[in-house]
Amino acid sequence: FPTFSATNGGIFTFNGTTQGTAVIRGVLGDDFTLSTWFKTTSNAGSTGEWRSGRGLIDASWNAGNDFGLTMGQGKLMFGTGSPNVTITSPSTYNDGNWHNVIATRTKATGALRMYVDGILVASGTGGTNTLNLPGNLYIGNWVNQRLFEGSMSAIHMYNTALSETQAQNNYDALKGRLGIAASATSTAGGTINFTDVSPAIKP
Questions:
Q1: Count of C-beta atoms within a 10 Å radius of residue 179
Q2: Which of 12, 71, 74, 134 is deepest in the core (most CB within 10 A)?
Q3: Rounded to the nearest 5°, which phi and psi values hold at 174?
Q4: Separation CA 70–CA 49 (nearest Å)
Q5: What is the reported pLDDT for 137?
Q6: What pTM, to 2 d.p., does this model score?
């Protein structure tokens, strides 16, 4: 299991070799959102397909109706199976600072979207099948392998695809907790009001 600290409202730290955990996925499989704050300096993992990365929030099983959010070479990857589609952040985020990643999937269209620090950075189109394999969501690892090295906080999962505005709201609502200046807004000029979108898994 990861190491827990109550600092900044709750932080899990993973050593990248032996520490990871999992939760029951529940109703996630059609429309959903995966969200977490993370901090790392690791360059581990490969790019190309999300299954080759180090797991942040992952429900993959080599093939089939699966999905996952991972990191490889400092880049973020979000993907779905049947068919295999991965979207990748253009930039790297293994700079040792806190970042927020939000990945959404809409079943009707297969739309995949990735937001980092409140900004849309990648999008694509996957399949429209129900993603119902396997039964767990692995946190900080990929099926008890390919373990993430770094810290995570505010791990949220929703059974709906958050809008761009809601993604910005979530970032702006929690950035102060992780020590990010209030002036670091995710949109130019003006402020964003936070809308509570439950449920969430914390910290």
A1: 10
A2: 71
A3: -110, -10
A4: 9
A5: 87
A6: 0.88
